[in-house]
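From the pipeline queue, job 12 of 40. The input is one protein chain; the requested action is below.

Action: predict structure.
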Amino acid sequence: PDIIMPKFGGAPKCRVCKKSVYAMELMKYDDQIYHKTCFRCLECKKVLLPKSVAMMSGDLYCKDCFKKKFKARGKYDDITAVVPGTQEKPKPSSKAEAKSVVKEEMKKA
């Protein structure tokens, strides 16, 4: 993540409004710079604190809106990326797919 810095000195730019952020109004989160007033939930527009933030693809959400938006289907599976080497195999998304995975495993044994 790159912090937007002016070419000829001055203050860094806010990730949301792209205006200069000075020390008294600075909020830093996930290596990004924000005005305290720009550090808001994308859905409900509530001003956030660092402990109450949920971030998805660079967008800020309060924890309540994050849960409503991304857990509507009862799972977070569609929003998590698998980092190579951190998970052996993805979990099957349906019973039919699970049965085929079990059959494949039994063939190997």
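Job complete. The longest helix spans residues 95-108.
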